[in-house]
Amino acid sequence: MRARYRLDDLRIDVARQRVERGGVALEVGGLSFRLLHYLLQQGQRVVDFDELIQNVWAPALVNEETVTQRVRLLRQALGDDSRQPRYLRSVRGRGYQLCVPVQLEQASPVDALWRRGVWIAAGIVALVCIGAGATWWLQTRDAPPAQAALLQRADYYAGIGQRDDNERAIGLYRQRLQEAPDDRQAQLGLSRAYSARVCQYDGDATFALQALRLADAVVAVQPGLAAAYAARGYALDCQGRNGDALAAYEQALQLDPSADAVRGSAAYLYERQGKLVQALSANLAVREPTRVRFLPIQIASNLSLLGYASAAEARYRKNFFSSIRTIRSPIWLGLRSCSNMAARPKRRRR
Questions:
Q1: How many secondary structure helices (H) and strands (E) does the chain include?
Q2: Burial 264-284, CB ≥16 within 10 A → b, else e
Q3: Which sections of the sequence are annotated for DNA binding (predicted)?
Q4: Which of 38, 85, 95, 142 would you label with 252, given CA atoms 20 to 30 Å apart?
Q5: CA pair distance 327, 237, nearest whole angstrom
């Protein structure tokens, strides 16, 4: 077993989970030690965020910010400086890399004897606990945590709404489908991500066809699953087949009336088809407005096309100023200043 590593002036004992510099132990433990150990095993290879999440944090669901914070804590424990790194450097847009080559050290006879004793003790404990452990495994074997974590990460990236994160989600869904080609959740996730690649990020239109095939495959085996019809509608929507897409959205809503995001998509197509009353009715029926992007704009558009210009203008104005306040833009401060100046009574010149 590779019990010891040397990294510059650091000595890392894996068996004891101990990091020393000049014979003095550093406070590196728990997740920080696991992160350091994994990086040591990779040598000076650049390790990306997804790999770290999968091998250090899984099955916990975390994001890149969590990794960044843990790296910061590890650096603090090692006395490293991110601006002039000695042990661990960040590689922009890629991940992290050790600054110097990793050296392996052979364990001393005393260490080997100590480790043998540890393993004997661990074996005794394992024999005592094996019955309970086997029972727990039998109860939970239907939901492997690593697989669940992989899909959770894919769903997380897909939900961010950025091109790069959508591509990352596609890679994770593909990875899961290589392991389990019939995983329905992964099929639908990949279908939605392919549709987003076309509709939101100007990708090749052929991916909308692949998205439709994935959704149809799930519909064929689970015809009562609302999410499958929603994914089918999205794929058809991205192909410009508005009528077919609307029919799929309506089927999804029949199966799951609480699907607000689907209702918002259907409302948009109602408006495109000139069914303005249905569009407005669908938008106003949304129960959780935060789940539908641009819902206030859609409602304002419906009102405008129906001839309620004043009501539409009021909603447009409210949405605009709400957005400005939310981002706390200097523009908002300027607009308030101008508004206040305009409201003041002007003095007459003498």
A1: 15, 8
A2: bbbbbbbbeeeebebbbebbe
A3: 2-100
A4: 142
A5: 31
Is residue 33 pLDDT above 60, yes or no? yes
The pLDDT confidence band at residue 311, using thresholds 50, 70 and 90, is confident
Please, how many CA atoms are within 13 Å of residue 40, restricted to the half-sphere of its CB? 23
Domains and CATH numbers, the chain: 4-105 (1.10.10.10)
Q: Kindly tell me if the per-residue pLDDT of 259 is higher than 50.
A: yes
In angstroms and rounded to an integer, the radius of gyration of the C-alpha atoms of the chain is 28
Assigned token pair, 220: 């064929």
Find out whether 283 and 267 touch, Cβ atoms under 8 Å: yes
Contacts of 229 (CB under 8 A, 6+ apart): 215, 219, 248, 249, 251, 252, 255
Q: Are 296 and 319 in contact (CB under 8 A)?
A: yes
pLDDT-derived band at 138 (thresholds 50, 70, 90) equals very low
Q: Which of 41, 19, 16 is nearest to 111 (CA)?
A: 16
Task: List C-alpha distances in Å: 317 to 10, 55, 190, 304.
Answer: 60, 49, 37, 13
- Please choose, from the candidates 148, 144, 130, 239, the residue with its C-alpha nearest in 3D space to the C-alpha of residue 186: 148
